[in-house]
Structure formats: structure tokens, C-alpha cells
């Protein structure tokens, strides 16, 4: 039987089954399968590219060929599927190292439904910062940071996190170059892209940092709670609803929802909830207080905002929860005077990772709790 009848695809050096059991991921620009090297038997990840986005795939290959970091997925080769398998039309594929899973896979596990452990989250912050710092040094905007694009490699029992999917990435002339194209995933899109998507325009511009750091904030919030920070009534793809929510967000809110009367309710700390509603997302974004890190919509349509994590959703020690809330508020801060630069993000990550930890015995509940000491830091409240 030939390769097509068996459901097998080939390139010059690689092959893979198209069966769902070998499908790793499926997105707007292509599908990712588990495959093998025909000569060595090595397992690889093979991204089959959508034929209508050849220019985007060529740009992704160009970027992958020029970067190398322990915290960015390793690019192996690019190729085309054998002509006999695709009716005479060339289809491009990208071959990359095969991961053991992704952060999204971890968040789907029962034990992580309320977020990852703070020890794993700190490791993720460390590796994500290193990957983004490398891209920053190369003047590259990733533009789609999210749990699905953070791969996990198990190395002697230790998790190594690596950024992947550079389909929407761009080389920049400098790190402050204005960008306007809509790129990313609803729920993780920065406020400017959300507004452009809702208005069906590209009028508003944003920088690499405004794009990637916002997505980092959304990703860390979800990893800490198991839910997205800002979700309008019909879900994160409700762009107009999200836009309205964002423009009303207090600067220190990290969580927001809509109340029964349509009012935005914000929190500065972590929540209780889950998200695709483009008009709703737009409406949510334009009403977001600049300090809100969490937002939801109530039964009456009111936006509910918080400056902290929602109660019952973030199970971290109290001191770490406070520090992480502050960090995410800075990532979401849109005010000109206090907006986080990439260098400040880099410094805050290092301070967070190197912060002294003290075990405190709490007499009232007879248990030990880890306390994070901020007495010697510069970027966090003491």
C-alpha cells in the first residue's frame, strides 16, 4: 500500500502518521504531528503548514534558523511533502525537537485545575524570562505567548520550559518599533490589538514589550489560578466586550468580571471562574481600571474588577501571592509613567527568583508557611 492509503506522509528524511493519536497541536497556520527521522529513528515534531500562509511560514523559518537558546524550541530542518502524497502541490513542513508536553497540558491535569505549584511557576518564570531576554537581544517580537506555546522537556526529573511557535513573530529594527498587525490569541491579546480587532482596523500601534509582556501577565495569571484574568460575558473571543472592559480597568487590577447589572468588577488579587467573545472583550478592555488584574462579567452584565487574585483560586502562600499580584499588575500597567520596560521586567524576574525565603510557623493554625522576604528588593513593595 502506498503512503497515502496508510495515512502516512513523507518528506525526504522524515515521516509521520496523520492519525489523531499522533496529532500534537492544531492551529490557524498548520498542524503539528509526532514524526520520525527515516534514517536515525529519532522522534521529532513536524509542523505541516497551511498552504495559504506560505509567506508567514517562510518568515518563521527565517527566524528559527537564526536563533538558538536553551529556552527556545530547537529547529531541525524545513522540507516539503513528497509530491506523490499531495497531488502535485508543494506543502512546506517544519521539523523541530519533540517536547514531552506543554504548559497547557499541565494545566489540564486535575491537580493543576487551580494553578501550578508556586515552585513550578517560579521555574517557568525563570525559563520564560531567559527565552524572552534572548529574543529581546535579537530584536524579535514573539507576539503569541500563551500556555500552548510553552513546551516542557523533562530532564532527569526537572522541567525545562521552551518557547515555540514563531509563526506570528517579527524581526524589528529596534525594540520600540511600532507594530499594528493583529497577531496572537484572544484572551492573551494586548489592549491595542483587542481594540483593533474589535474595530476591524489597524489604527492603534503597540510595541514589542506592550505585546509580549501583556501576554506574559495573562499566562502567569492563568498558571497561578487555572483561569484567564479577563473574560467578558461571551468569553475571551468577544473582542468588543473585552475592549470595553480594558478601557475601564483600574491600573492596579489584575482580575475582572462583569456583574449582573453590567458593571465591571475588578480585583487587585487572584479569583473564583473561565473563558471566546470578541465584542465583549473589546467592551471589557476599554473599561478596565489600569490597576486591575482580574475581570469578569456578572449575571446582569456588569464588569467586576479586582486588583488581586480572586478568592479561592490562588492557593499560594500569602506573601508570594501578594508579590505575584504586584508583578502582574506591573505587566498590565498601561500608564506612561509606570509602564514596565523589558529591562525592568528582567530585573523583577531576577529579584523574584532570588528572593530570600523563610519558613514561618503559624501558631494559630499550627503549620509552616513559606515567607518571601522583600526587605532588600528594589522593584517590589517591602
Automatic annotation (TrEMBL):
- Where does the record say this protein resides? Cytoplasm
SUPFAM superfamilies registered for this protein in UniProt: Protein kinase-like (PK-like) (SSF56112)
Query: What protein does this entry describe?
Result: IkappaB kinase
Q: Which GO terms describe its cellular component?
A: cytoplasm
What keywords are annotated for this sequence in UniProt? ATP-binding, Cytoplasm, Kinase, Nucleotide-binding, Serine/threonine-protein kinase, Transferase
Task: Extract the Gene3D superfamilies matched here.
Answer: Transferase(Phosphotransferase) domain 1
Residues binding ATP, per UniProt: 47
The record's annotation in SMART domains points to: S_TKc
